[in-house]
Amino acid sequence: MSPSPYWLRDNCPCAECRDPRSGQKLFRIGDLPDGLAVLESEEDADGLRVVWSDGHRSAYPADFLDAAGDDGDGRTEQGKRLWVAADFARGLPEAEWSAYLASTEERIAVLAAIRRSGFALLRGVPAVEGQVLDVARSFGYVRETNYGELFDVRVEPDPTNLAFTSTAIAPHTDNPYRDPVPTVQLLHCLHSEAVGGDSGLVDGFRAAALLREESPEDFAVLTRTPVPFVYRDRQTELRAERPLIDVDGRGRIREVRFNNRSIATLRGLTDRELDAFYAAYRRFAAITLRPELQLTFRLAPGDCVVFDNTRLLHARTAFEQEGRRHLQGCYADLDSLASQLAVLERRAAALDTLEQLFEGEGAGEYLGEAVTMAQHMLQAGALARAAGAPDHLVAAALLHDVGHFHGSGLKLMQGEDNRHSHTGADWLARWFGPAVTEPVRLHVAAKRYLCATEPGYRERLSEASEFTLQVQGGPMTGAEAERFAAHPGAQDAVAVRRWDEQAKDPAMETPPFARFRPILARLMG
Amino acid sequence: MSPSPYWLRDNCPCAECRDPRSGQKLFRIGDLPDGLAVLESEEDADGLRVVWSDGHRSAYPADFLDAAGDDGDGRTEQGKRLWVAADFARGLPEAEWSAYLASTEERIAVLAAIRRSGFALLRGVPAVEGQVLDVARSFGYVRETNYGELFDVRVEPDPTNLAFTSTAIAPHTDNPYRDPVPTVQLLHCLHSEAVGGDSGLVDGFRAAALLREESPEDFAVLTRTPVPFVYRDRQTELRAERPLIDVDGRGRIREVRFNNRSIATLRGLTDRELDAFYAAYRRFAAITLRPELQLTFRLAPGDCVVFDNTRLLHARTAFEQEGRRHLQGCYADLDSLASQLAVLERRAAALDTLEQLFEGEGAGEYLGEAVTMAQHMLQAGALARAAGAPDHLVAAALLHDVGHFHGSGLKLMQGEDNRHSHTGADWLARWFGPAVTEPVRLHVAAKRYLCATEPGYRERLSEASEFTLQVQGGPMTGAEAERFAAHPGAQDAVAVRRWDEQAKDPAMETPPFARFRPILARLMG
Question: A55, A312, A396, B129: which is deepest, by most CB within 10 A?
């Protein structure tokens, strides 16, 4: 193997190179010496170990070199579903607002649809003013603009923008004169009694891909010509020069900006370049209007459409001014949306992993007790719940021995302190706050504390627990016990400890892990 | 002449093609017929007139074809001052916060410095928590992130980011894992008693330009390699793939993203590509550390540095933990900053134009009265002020005859209604709200109203005013007068009219235009 040495070294995961808490690198790329080379390397099932020419040593996990190229940042055409209207013949990506709020799965589905198809529809969002801001805040941050934190789309007496008239509006992206452009748009319907005023969406990535296919030279012209977009009113003078189609360094479509209403005068190009640009622009515009690309639907009060404003073009048909039509809109950004989606997926995966551990490894022997490890922990959780403990203590009781998983429990019985309370707490800290992790971290200390301070406690320990007490350091000294009692988390740790001791009853009915999943999901939030 | 026909037609300024209020185009580019051509064209001092093959007619202003290429959107290297530290040997671009708040000129200077040099320093910003948000709101909108609306830079017990430790931090841009990245950063110093902790800035555009000069191939590698930036904590999982140096379609440097701490593992490249990337990256990193590029200064309490986070790299030296060091920061965006700057410049230019009109054309005869046009208007403004009128009426009185400028006053005396009240109000509406423009618009109507309803009013008119009354339609009929009186702006218009009538006194002392400038500047806000 001969991977690029600076690449390999830049990814060294050791605590000297990378802050264990933040994962951020602790060195500057220029700190690495010139001519850096691998002196020795060894690869086996445990991973790759390297000795470097500057004496540093690195150890990489087993799959490091072979890890698949990832999907990028999810902002290019790669991994997306480029669509035509007929692809939604069986229905739009949509969810009830109440289900979206209550269920992680629904929320993941909605956010994943926005990422993959560029939009999703939420139904039953209370048709009250300002509610659209809550929808945006459910996955990110509202981006304020000159139109305000939110804007009203209805007929205005003295409109500063054609959106605020009853005119038909052709497919376009919003705020092209902003850079950074707002990357997510939300439109929430409050009233829709007017005749007309239907909504339309067009997949701008699909349109751009069609242009690339049918006329590669036109596509290239649009990716390399900066186009000035301008918006002016009494308080505002915005100008951005960006191409109609933006591609990344590998040529993948990354952003579409399309809005004839606000294209200003292109300057500094030859007539020949202008002819080429306008020919390409007109061809692209014609593609965006092809009937098979128009996804048309009608927003009813309570519907809120959320879409990717760097990809989808939106439109509306003209409407009659008699009936009332009122939408409220706001902007947000895709980066926070993607972060929220990744965190929810990561949490769901963590719960799956826990469930698998309880059902797999957890079925094994629990340090010589009469219950399995899973039974023990489930019982501890159930006891905490029966005692009316708050959620974070139920979770701590349920998960207190999670550090025993991965076969490490065995080492403890062989007389080696596996520090399972710390291992467990550190692992849990990737998902839970200190209210859950600290009682787990301190539950062994609590045992040593109770043995030192509570008459008769030590005598009630099970045989196995008495044995591990020795390995764990024995009862606390007076000074240790005092320090422990002063710790703000001591009470919680002692409570968990008591449920721990009681949770070894082969006769007790043991709830399944699934019973605790909603509590854990809430605590991860 | 043979300009590109679609380009020319897309810029037709007629009211059919372009909404006169919003300036937005009213047609779709695809609405123009194929094979569009110029049938006839005629160019003279008044401009260019075109008859199109589809029958449409366009008229362009005189300078349309020859207008210079503009400066783009001010986001690329073009038109910027790329600097080294010595360029600021005589001082940093800075202003007192109080002066920035009070003076349009100071504000323009600060915002222009951020645009041109990438940063400016505000001094004497009250060292109280949250104040940095007010600084951001003075030119744009706060961009909230996972760090909050604002963030505290000080030593934290359990830091999620190296910024919150006392470690030295090499020059970098912030939030590279966000897309859109926050384009403006603010750092406001509340306490700086610690030894060390100085601030540094490096012009990333200059560094990139040096790389392009010294090693064009390395520069090209960095512009075309998407680099994954990642940030993860319990609530966050951000990922953006962007090049270290981004150029626009014409090859101009447009954005620098530089932060070794959060570069994740590059995947999907060959070892050769990785070698090339790392060689270029290390060369660029070395340039950013050149001593001549490091602008170092110390923030004192009350200092707030505002900088372009798409261009400048910022750094800080290590500091001792004993002394207190506390900065508060937040993010905002360049587009709103540039808009604010353009609007302030546009307003200042409008005031300059007005001042020139008063001093130039205004010195001319006022329709046969014994005062000049400027004296007349200045007197009207002074009378309004002396009467204790609110600012908007002082302004309306001062500006009521602005529609006479540009020689159009003459036409009125030749018996042709120049509708000067409407011309003036429409022109003023580019800068002032209806409180100022509507009394101007109605001041001729008010004269016709008073002649109809107030006994003796008509008899008091000057000879010239009696003459123009005929051209303007004579006294109102009873029905007209009733309609006028019901108009919400009628009282203000009548008030302006009365000052108008009185302001023809050659003996009255006339204040200079400059006396009114601050009032006008405030009303434009």
Answer: A396
